[in-house]
């Protein structure tokens, strides 16, 4: 993205002395910070120098002239076109209006994406050229960039995003990596110097899980188009095997990748290190070639490929999820869940700061199970299930995709089939099986940042009365609900 700033934006950014500090300085600095974080290019127009040259205070003029040199200048900016001049008229040669029009021409001719100015008169001209959505004030561009590049990616509380240079390379989790990779220490030093990032799961004084990641050059992977995020290291401490921390790290890194517009995840591994069932379960595909070190190459697509239409809804979810669902050819159901089970099954729906002393596999996993006494026999593989948290928030808080369902009154059969997927204890399952139990095995796809309240569901005609048991979405509300969940 390329943004042109007016001189009236440069001035609050570069005060000459304390008396020159303007009210907009804080907003201007926030704007610059957002641009730097998101690789947005900032330009000044050559005509902007004339505003500085007209300053009669020689010292201030010199300081601002020097400050001007810190920014890129738009090279050979386009001149106003006849079409543009026919709309707004010819300015007086050498006037400030002429400077304004030359700056506007940069937007009109698509040399830049946005032009930022606090000049109201100039913005009126922009409106007459139908450029009002691209000629913005500081506050407007801050709002735009904050929405386009939200800085806070919701993450499970126990997962932290840290620069690699902040990690303790003596942590026990690195021992097996160091033993299998002779050049580890040199590589780790390189990661520090390059400011690579990591996701870590910290338990007490050591790391329980770690993923170091970085953008991969596309030309190193044949046939892959779009941005690629490489998982340089993906490791769970042996002390925490069975806690589904691999699934927790994976859904966290996928969330980051989607947010930062990556199209693929990529990793390499030696055969002896291969956790093939894990990679296969979550949609990683092995490429036919190996790299120069003889390692196997795996890619996971995060967005539908050309063959997606041939996949069943569940196959689609495995290949591209979590975070995306196949919404065609499926049914949609609301499933009520009590708060005490919701906070365990969907840990992220709890308020940040509520620490969980006990680490439970079901909280971390992508694959989960829900048990109830519903008579529903319609939910099928690939159907979308909306979990409606009852009693307190009375809202849809999470979206899942059904793997399969079964009915049973045998607690042992249920335990054998659902394993660590459930929030229920054996005694609770025994109590449930006094009647026949419906078991819904599903994949968590998304935690809703904006839960859908019962009032909203009712107002839009999505439900029939209160949601006290599994309920199918009313057909007439489907277009609204699809739009609501893809916002």
Automatic annotation (TrEMBL):
Gene Ontology molecular function = acyltransferase activity, transferring groups other than amino-acyl groups
> What's the protein called, per UniProt?
Acetyltransferase, GNAT family
Which InterPro entries does the entry link to? Acyl_CoA_acyltransferase, GNAT_dom
| Keyword check for Oxidoreductase | no
What residues form the membrane-spanning segments? none
Name the SUPFAM superfamilies for this protein. Acyl-CoA N-acyltransferases (Nat)
Q: Which residues form a coiled coil?
A: none
**Domain N-acetyltransferase: start-end pairs:** 160-303
Record PROSITE patterns: GNAT
Name one matching Pfam family. Answer: Acetyltransf_1
Keywords from UniProt, A to Z, are: Transferase
């Amino acid at each position: 993205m390329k943004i042109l700033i007016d001189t009236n934006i440069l001035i609050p950014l570069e005060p000459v002395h304390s008396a020159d500090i303007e009210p907009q300085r804080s907003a201007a600095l926030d704007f610059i910070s957002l641009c730097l974080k998101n690789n947005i290019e900032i330009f000044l127009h050559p005509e902007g120098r004339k505003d500085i040259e007209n300053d009669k205070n020689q010292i201030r003029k010199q300081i601002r002239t020097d400050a001007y040199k810190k920014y890129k200048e738009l090279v050979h900016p386009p001149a106003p076109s006849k079409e543009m001049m026919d709309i707004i008229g010819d300015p007086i040669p050498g006037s400030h209006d002429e400077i304004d029009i030359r700056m506007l021409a940069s937007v009109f001719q698509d040399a830049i994406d946005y032009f930022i100015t606090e000049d109201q008169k100039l913005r009126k001209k922009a409106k007459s050229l139908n450029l009002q959505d691209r000629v913005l004030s500081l506050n407007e561009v801050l709002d735009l960039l904050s929405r386009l590049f939200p800085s806070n990616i919701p993450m499970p509380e126990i997962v932290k995003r840290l620069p690699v240079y902040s990690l303790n390379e003596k942590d026990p989790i690195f021992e097996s990596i160091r033993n299998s990779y002779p050049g580890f220490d040199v590589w780790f030093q390189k990661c520090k110097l390059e400011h690579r990032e990591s996701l870590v799961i910290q338990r007490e004084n050591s790391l329980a899980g770690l993923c170091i990641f970085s953008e991969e050059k596309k030309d190193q992977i044949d046939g892959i188009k779009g941005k690629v995020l490489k998982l340089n290291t993906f490791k769970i401490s042996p002390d925490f095997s069975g806690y589904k921390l691999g699934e927790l790290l994976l859904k966290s890194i996928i969330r980051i990748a989607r947010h930062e517009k990556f199209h693929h995840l990529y990793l390499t591994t030696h055969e002896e290190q291969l956790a093939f069932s894990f990679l296969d379960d979550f949609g990683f595909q092995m490429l036919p070639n190996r790299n120069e070190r003889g390692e196997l190459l795996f890619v996971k697509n995060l967005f539908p490929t050309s063959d997606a239409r041939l996949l069943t809804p569940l196959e689609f979810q495995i290949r591209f999820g979590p975070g995306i669902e196949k919404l065609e050819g499926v049914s949609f159901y609301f499933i009520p869940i009590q708060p005490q089970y919701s906070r365990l099954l969907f840990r992220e729906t709890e308020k940040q700061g509520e620490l969980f002393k006990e680490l439970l596999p079901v909280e971390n996993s992508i694959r989960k199970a829900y048990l109830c006494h519903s008579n529903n026999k319609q939910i099928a593989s690939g159907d979308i299930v909306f979990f409606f948290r009852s009693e307190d928030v009375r809202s849809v808080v999470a979206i899942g995709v059904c793997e399969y369902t079964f009915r049973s009154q045998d607690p042992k059969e249920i335990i054998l089939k659902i394993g660590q997927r459930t929030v229920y204890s054996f005694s609770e399952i025994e109590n449930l099986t006094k009647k026949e139990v419906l078991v819904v095995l599903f994949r968590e796809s998304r935690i809703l940042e904006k839960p859908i309240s019962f009032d909203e569901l009712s107002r839009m005609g999505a439900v029939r009365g209160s949601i006290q048991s599994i309920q199918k979405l009313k057909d007439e509300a489907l277009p609204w609900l699809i739009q609501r969940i893809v916002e």
